[in-house]
Every structure is written in C-alpha cells, then in structure tokens.
C-alpha cells in the first residue's frame, strides 16, 4: 500500500471492549475518502489513533507528509478573531501568512476580524478548515463535517471542499455520520460497523449497494 494514509490491521481495546478490530484502510493521495458508520462504530477511536492521541494495541499507521485535523466540534478560541484562530493553525509550521487561506476560502476574508465565538456553526466549521490548511497539510482529516449544521450550510461547505480539492493537492479523510453526503463528496468509502470494516469500495458503488442503502441511506 502506498496511500497518503495507510492503516494496517489496527486494533484498539478499551478496558474490556474492542473499539477497533483489525481495521485496514487507505487514503489515496489526492483523493477524498469517507469513513461512515453509526454512533459507537469506532470512528472517533480511529481518528484518535490517527492523531496519535491513543496508542493502538496492534497494527500500523503510516502517514506520508503532514496531517492536519479538523476536530469534531470545531474547537475555536471564541474570544479570538478569525484571523488569530487561523494563525494558531500555522503555529507548528511557523506559518503566519493567512492570505493563501483567504484566497482558497474567500468567505473567510469577509469575517477575518470577527470574534470566532460570534460566528454561526457553519462559519466556525469554515474557520476550522482554514486553520487546518494553515499547517500546509498533505492530508486533511475532517471529523464530522456536518454535525449540528443546517442542510443549506452543509451544501455550501461541501462546495467549498470540492473547490479546495480541485485547487490544491490534498488527500482528505472525511469521518461522517451523514452517509449520503460522504458518498456524494468522496471517491472511496469505508463502512465501519462495530469496530470492523464491513464494506469498502468506490463511493458511487457503495451508494448503490443494497446493504448501504438499507442501513445508511434510509432505504433509498
Ligand atoms: P460516535 O459517533 O458516537 O462518536 P464512534 O463511531 O466515534 O461513535 P467511538 O467513540 O470510537 O465510536 O467508540 C467505539 C466503541 O468504544 C463504543 O462502543 C464506545 O462505547 C467505546 N468507547 C469509546 N471510548 C471509550 C473509553 N474511553 N472507554 C471504554 N470504552 C470506550
């Protein structure tokens, strides 16, 4: 395997319970890959292992290049401006130049001086994506893009991600409860069920798979 991210035979156990069981997954370079699954399937555990926050019991994780993470819940500094929140994303790489991010996400330029805490959920999600881009990543891990956001806002975010992906060479791993959105946006997808990869393949094929439509797409 030679993807931007290769996860091989990953197993994570919490006291007694197995959260991930022999999970293998690849994110191809310059592609968008989705990980979908119900509550408790193990998605957060996989993101934590990828971000180095928990140590797997078994398996390997290989990331080629720099990985940046858009965390579930955005995690803004609410009293700081959008501009300062973005700069925090460039802290590790000593990048203070926000101009390229404003070029990629022009909606952010209009709100650059606003307090992050005064923004809508959709705007905050955009700031969280911009902040991750400040690290000049090769791989972007987006945890629950659509959580808590109105459908119209999600559509706008998806448009931005499509443009971003067309403009910049970037591998994206999208962890998402909204399977329809994930399969529509991404090239490949993995379905996680009770800690195991139940299905994977091209997103378009999974979107037509009766097992996926019945369990994740409301039977349509
Ligand atoms: P959600 O969408 O609700 O966050 P998830 O797919 O991210 O769900 P995980 O949070 O990764 O799922 O949890 C996977 C399994 O591991 C669940 O059964 C959960 O109860 C269990 N689990 C998660 N964290 C811990 C922990 N710290 N200690 C024990 N069990 C845990």
From TrEMBL:
The keyword Nuclease does not apply. It comes from the Bacteria. CDD domains: ABC_TM1139_LivF_branched. Transmembrane segments: none annotated. Gene3D superfamilies: P-loop containing nucleotide triphosphate hydrolases. Keywords: Amino-acid transport, ATP-binding, Nucleotide-binding, Transport. GO terms for molecular function: ATP binding. Residues 5-219 form the ABC transporter domain. Belongs to the ABC transporter superfamily. PANTHER family: ABC TRANSPORTER ATP-BINDING PROTEIN, HIGH-AFFINITY BRANCHED-CHAIN AMINO ACID TRANSPORT ATP-BINDING PROTEIN LIVF. This is ABC transporter ATP-binding protein. It comes from Actinoplanes subglobosus.
């Amino acid at each position: 395997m030679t993807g931007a991210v290769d996860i091989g035979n990953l197993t994570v156990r919490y006291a007694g319970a197995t959260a991930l069981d022999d999970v293998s997954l690849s994110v191809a370079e310059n592609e968008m890959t989705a990980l979908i699954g119900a509550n408790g399937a193990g998605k957060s555990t996989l993101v934590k292992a990828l971000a180095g926050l928990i140590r797997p019991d078994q398996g390997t994780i290989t990331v080629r290049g720099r990985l940046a993470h858009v965390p579930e819940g955005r995690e803004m500094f609410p009293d700081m401006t959008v501009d300062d929140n973005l700069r925090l994303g460039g802290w590790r790489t000593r990048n203070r130049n926000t101009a390229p991010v404003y070029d990629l996400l022009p909606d952010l330029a209009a709100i650059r001086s606003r307090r992050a805490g005064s923004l809508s959920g959709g705007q905050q999600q955009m700031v969280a994506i911009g902040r991750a881009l400040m690290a000049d990543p090769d791989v972007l891990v987006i945890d629950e893009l659509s959580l808590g956001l109105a459908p119209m806002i999600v559509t706008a975010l998806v448009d931005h991600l499509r443009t971003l992906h067309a403009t910049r060479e970037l591998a994206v791993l999208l962890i998402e409860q909204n399977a329809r959105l994930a399969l529509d946006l991404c090239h490949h997808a993995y379905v996680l069920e009770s800690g195991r990869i139940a299905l994977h393949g091209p997103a378009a094929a999974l979107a037509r798979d009766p097992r996926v439509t019945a369990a994740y797409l409301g039977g349509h």
